[in-house]
Design brief:
Number of domains: 2
Order of helices and strands: HHEHHEEEHHHH
Largest sheet: 4 strands, antiparallel
Strand content: 5-15%
Shape: rod-shaped
Distance between the termini: 31 Å
Helix content: 55-70%
Length: 257
């Protein structure tokens, strides 16, 4: 199950975009396979173009993306976060990751050392670093938690609606099948009614013939009488079944409407 299977991703993107605009933090959503499922918001030159632009930097960043939980300091020295996206039963569908923010004014020497480790031009790295925003750890944590809460609430609501729609579809199929079977039962009942009428006619004819036969036809008259009673019983049962089927048909039609 993927988030894209049941969520309105336009609304999903709107939530992500509004959060990024209001907080100034970077964010992106990833699926359970680690692949991006949303646009990247507020991604910095420092992270995308320079840190991830180097082979070693990209390897370290991808490791942080996979393993980072809550609010944490990334390998390059910025504050990042990773909040899982889950269903009510605990199923993990992906996560919202981001941050790319400083918790305090940076120590240039520390970041020059990182640049050398990653094989990045130091001056370009420091210039990009000074464009990165600064927020307290408390602000970063609160912002990340807010995004996680809102996204999880939205995804779970979408999934519940998806489940409800699936259940309604199954119910419609079941109702249609029931209506078909009721129709077949009505046809069978009509045949029973036809047989009952024929039995009544046969019983009547037998009674007439036995009367003509006089004493010798008396036994035949008894049989004819029993056949007539059986036919009347079949007609009564058939009428009752037809009545029940009519009520059931009405109920099924109401559900279909």
């Amino acid at each position: 199950m993927k988030i894209q299977d049941f969520c309105d991703m336009v609304k999903f993107e709107e939530i992500m975009n509004n959060w990024a605009k209001s907080t100034g933090l970077a964010t992106v959503a990833v699926g359970a396979d680690g692949k991006y499922i949303s646009e990247c918001y507020n991604f910095t030159e420092f992270c995308i173009d320079l840190t991830r632009g180097s082979e070693e930097g990209r390897r370290r960043c991808e490791k942080c993306d996979r393993e980072g939980e809550g609010v944490y300091e990334c390998h390059a020295g910025l504050m990042d976060f990773g909040i899982p996206i889950t269903l009510n039963d605990g199923t993990v569908l992906g996560s919202v990751i981001g941050g790319q923010i400083l918790p305090e004014n940076p120590d240039d020497d520390k970041f020059r050392s990182v640049a050398r480790e990653l094989g990045i031009n130091e001056d370009a790295y420091i210039e990009a670093l000074h464009k990165v925003g600064v927020k307290s750890k408390e602000q970063i944590k609160a912002s990340a938690q807010l995004l996680g809460d809102v996204i999880n609430m939205y995804v779970r609501d979408c999934y519940q609606e998806y489940q409800n729609n699936q259940m309604l579809e199954r119910l419609k199929v079941g109702i249609a099948k029931a209506a078909e079977e009721i129709s077949e039962a009505n046809e069978s009942t009509s045949k029973i009614v036809g047989f009952s009428k024929k039995q009544n006619m046969l019983a009547l004819n037998a009674s007439i013939e036995s009367a003509r036969a006089g004493e010798s036809g008396r036994g035949f008259a008894v049989v004819a009488s029993e056949v007539q009673k059986l036919a009347e019983g079949m007609a009564s049962v058939s009428k009752e079944i037809t009545s029940k089927l009519a009520q059931l048909t009405e109920t099924v039609n109401e559900l279909n409407d």
